[in-house]
User: Fold these one by one.
Assistant:
Number 1:
Amino acid sequence: MRIDGTCHCGAIAFEAEADPATASICHCTDCQAMTGTAFRANIRVEAPNFRLLRGTPTRYLKTTADSGNHRIQSFCPTCGTPVYATAPGDNPPVYTVRIGTLRQREQLTPKVQNWFTSARPWVTELGALPRNAKG
Ligand SMILES: [Zn+2]
Ligand SMILES: [Zn+2]
């Protein structure tokens, strides 16, 4: 499906083609630290299907990933929104795009939870919590 997104301030904009079946959640401790929350929702985009439309993301080389892989984390230099991760180098094969930046996010339901060994113990209990319409 066609997807497109922006960071919170709008400085970064992109479009891509992605398979909704690749939507996933990552519970790794790096994602917890870099989002400031409990987990991250991602979708996989093959590099030829990703197009940056506006802005230049700041790149941070993450060297301590739980996976042992080095990853480039790309985020907006103005508002800090995480936009995608890739492999280091000039021609990364895949962009791991952050679902929260996408206009189509309501259509993208995660199909798998990765790194569940480091999931916060309460993530399975969210359905039982009281629900407020606003914060
Ligand atoms: Zn921004
Ligand atoms: Zn992660």
Note: The radius of gyration is 15 Å.
Number 2:
Amino acid sequence: MRGENVGRASATGPVVVLGFGAAAVSALCALREAGFAGPVTVVTDAGPEPYSPVLTSYYAGGRIGYGQCFPWKDLDFEALIDDLVTASPVEAVDAGAREVVLPDGRRIGYAKLLIATGAHPVAPGFPATAPYRPLVLRTMADADRLREALEGVQRKSVLVAGTSMVGLKVLEACLDRGGRATMLGRSAHILRSSAHPLVAERLERLLVERGVALRLSQAAVSAAAHDGTRGCTVRFDNGDAEAFDEVVLAQGARPNLAFVRDSAVEVREGVVVDRFMRTSAPDVFAAGDVAQALDLSSGRERVIGLWQNAVQQGRCAGAAIAAELAGRAPTRPYPGSIPSNTIHVQDILFSSAGALAEGEGTRIEASEAGGALTVRAYAYRRGKKQLVGFNVLAVATDGGLYGDAVDEIGAYRREILNAYL
Ligand SMILES: Cc1cc2nc3c(=O)[nH]c(=O)nc-3n(C[C@H](O)[C@H](O)[C@H](O)COP(=O)(O)OP(=O)(O)OC[C@H]3O[C@@H](n4cnc5c(N)ncnc54)[C@H](O)[C@@H]3O)c2cc1C
């Protein structure tokens, strides 16, 4: 993978990459593809093979095996990385000294640094004082715990707190294991940030038909552990109380940035970066779930938290680092992203992209064809009526297919990209 030697890390150290996920791997590939042949060090708090959080729910639910959660098996990591430091959560970044500090006190100097440490699950709203420790899902260790919890007795009752994409994936894992699932959310509908109410309502109905109980417009006020088991009794703000064998929190994620205490690196919602993923500190870059970037559909800088976004930002950072080390200005800026995702819950497919909020100048159109419900948002951009967001909800037929829905999703995605780029 290493090409001509157009760049070398300076005497001050190697290129150091913190984290070993989608953003880091994409950056490493782009760095070498751009011809950088100098030393590269990767520091990760996990093991020697990068895993994908996207696949963890399928493993927990039994759809795939442990080994299938590591999607980069064909990459030659020896050609990409000179020094891989594992099981070592970075302690601090010292931008002044151009060093990172490891838990054993070791300091590694860098010529360029990429922060790609992703995010961790948080539980806003879940009773913080609960003596009960709910499960979460992000890392392979989390996935192992969830798998073990779901594997046990059939018909386990599981509360999934959170109605986001991750919540739905956890819900699917419970259903796959024969569990009885309840979904809890503060909003009136599930998928508040990506689904139009019309689509959310239909999806809720489909979930109920598959045995899921919904507690919407509700919050947990306490969770008391049962003696001698992993179970707990949860009290809700409407006065109800219910016993569950397991509680899984899927209420969002926050960037892994505890080690960025150096004020030279500006942090708001995530690390603030420019269009080449450069932070405010010299020679420090950031990419993926740890960084905030332009969401083209809202015009806001924010952490996007999606796989494709992490891949693209990682590639942009890797290419920019290689260019700067070769004494050139980077040329391929990150254009911003349009949040877009497709998920399945058993036989149900839900896909969304762009902005769906009704408002001045936005027109919502809904239609049904071939068993799929589609909601499209149109707005006038550059003097033309353009598609700026969509939802597609479809249920697989007996043959496991979704009719025209998949082609439709591809076409809508291209149309939205044209509207924004
Ligand atoms: C259950 C689940 C399902 C998902 N499904 C989808 C989906 O269907 N579609 C989609 O687009 N997105 C999905 N996502 C989001 C997607 O996984 C992320 O957007 C993507 O993984 C971000 O890549 P990243 O490289 O920024 O972070 P990560 O993939 O999380 O990688 C971060 C890396 O940093 C390491 N690390 C963390 N802290 C430290 C530290 N202090 N020191 C050293 N290393 C550290 C971690 O071990 C990891 O190797 C899902 C997420 C979850 C949790």
Note: The chain has three domains: 15-120+253-325, 140-249, 347-420.
Number 3:
Amino acid sequence: MSETISYTWRGAITDEEMVDLVRSHGGNAVAGWWSKVKEHSLGWVGARDGDGILVGFVNVAWDGGDHAFLIDTKTRGSHQHRGIGTAVVRMAVAHAHASGCEWLHVDFESELRGFYLDACGFRPTDAGLIHLPSRR
Ligand SMILES: CC(C)(COP(=O)(O)OP(=O)(O)OC[C@H]1O[C@@H](n2cnc3c(N)ncnc32)[C@H](O)[C@@H]1OP(=O)(O)O)[C@@H](O)C(=O)NCCC(=O)NCCS
């Protein structure tokens, strides 16, 4: 498909648009989530189709210094496998770099190794994770 997709850094995205995007790929949308989260972002990338519909997103959280964290990459269900996910990540990488960050982190399920490592250019590293509500 040759549809033109436009990409913005820190462009306005409403909570309702985010809920619609999450539902479009079968995710569990929580109303109010985006309004709360965005205040803590270095920035985010939004992708819109020719009609202005939100079709892609990624958020960049930040420690206030050298480290940024890529989180919540999403592509509309009807628009996946057209390079939109790779493109939103590419723009996030460029803006994190331009903002003075040295490292951009991401973690993901193993099924997405091809996306993050091959398509987006992250290199594998050891990392750790604790699900805090499950902690005894
Ligand atoms: C992961 C996701 C953002 C990828 O978006 P996308 O726009 O389809 O990605 P791209 O078109 O840029 O994909 C580039 C390549 O990455 C790999 N890839 C993309 N999605 C993949 C998936 N779900 N599983 C495995 N590999 C995938 C493929 O090699 C793909 O190339 P191909 O289309 O020729 O097969 C999208 O599948 C999505 O929104 N998933 C639901 C939410 C999610 O799980 N987000 C990740 C949170 S860590």
Note: The first strand starts at residue 6 and ends at 9.
Number 4:
Amino acid sequence: MGTNPSSRPKEECGVCGIFGHKDSAKLTYFGLYALQHRGQESAGITVSDGSHVQEHKDMGLVSEVFKENDFEKLQGHLAIGHVRYSTTGASNLVNAQPFTANHRGETFAVAHNGNLVNIRKLRDTLEESGSIFQSTMDSEAVVHLLAKECCTKNLKDAVHEVACRIRGAYSLLIMTRTHMVAMRDPQGFRPLCLGKLPNGGYVVASETCALDLIEAEYMRDVEPGEALIISKAGIDSFFPQGRQKSSFCIFEQVYFARPDSDIFGLNVYNYRKRTGEILARERTIDADFVMPFPDSGNYAAIGYSQASGIPLEFGVIRNHYVGRTFIQPSQSMRDFSVRVKLNPVRSFLEGKRVIIIEDSIIRGTTGRSRVKSLRRAGVKEIHMLISCPPTCNPCYYGIDFPDRRQLIAAQKSIDEIRDYLDLDSLYYLSLEGLVEASGMPKETFCLACFNGEYPVEPDLTFHKNTLGCGCG
Ligand code: SF4
């Protein structure tokens, strides 16, 4: 698992692929730009002109990894790209994606969002039959499997076989020199959508915000369990394991996806606003105003304000120009990482009773620093509402939650968390409210980090976290 020193959960990965455009690498670059929120550790693009494959990848943000002249060599009509935050495998260049390998005159490249839960077993089996792994990524196993299957089968049959061997969460883009394959796991944990380019080519991306940026028209989601093979002949769609019940990751709606995206058939902005409306129905508080810590609780705060009639204010100002700082503050400058980004408006907040809306509390350290900054600014009462239930369980499907020992809701009662954060009151949205905001049946979603019911059994000899919800 990747290391996550911050108290906020980390985005997982984003994928974008283009088929049938002469500037496929550039369009992929813009798609990745729109998906930057899904991973900031590394970025990469692999491109093919039908016979030659080129790639460029490095550690850093999309804007840091690619320079104008990189695109001189990235020529071709077919490209896949990836932005990464490591949930499996260490954070270094060898683990940056797309992962590309040559085998018997063919090239295979893969860009993966998700986590394979049977990776230990897969890797052992592949290594026993002679595969030599270059990285610690679970995604590399997909390349090895596909290359082996392609020795004896055509691409469609090989993809079918690979889909039947891998388990867990995957929204995958795979390319050969001539074909692009898009695959989504049978539960559809992570989003993946298909769009059409103005020139008739195709785009597949993690979120619709990537389509908007390159003026592609949204066609539909790649369905859970569906595989698409895109070539000059068009799109071939099939379901290697048949259609199964979905388990969409509800945390994508709560936290990860961009609010201007539509995922799982729902607009993220509207979903978050609705959670705020339901919070207002579930919890009435007498306060002077409601405010988010930008941007985490923005949309739920709008919903809460409109439903409760309590005014919405921005009592904390965000510095939008924070880059990476390599200069560490002295020990005496505690809570530096919070203060460098967010600063309370002291003269406005002094003596007020405020409701803070947050989208999650993971370890609790960020929330604690935020509350401390408000106390320093003279706020009289601080009530915190969370737009999801307590997160008591780790995720095995591609989200970098810490293990249960570090999840504050798995270790403390709600009253203890309230005291730890130094709040006047604390309330979490109910599980029913979380689902109600979607307008879809509960069974549609994975809710495991809240209720401990894992839709696909994880390999616990590989994932050392302990199962079960201790929040009671
Ligand atoms: S466990 Fe939580 S974060 Fe992971 S897929 Fe399920 S809902 Fe999403």
Note: The chain has 17 helices and 23 strands.
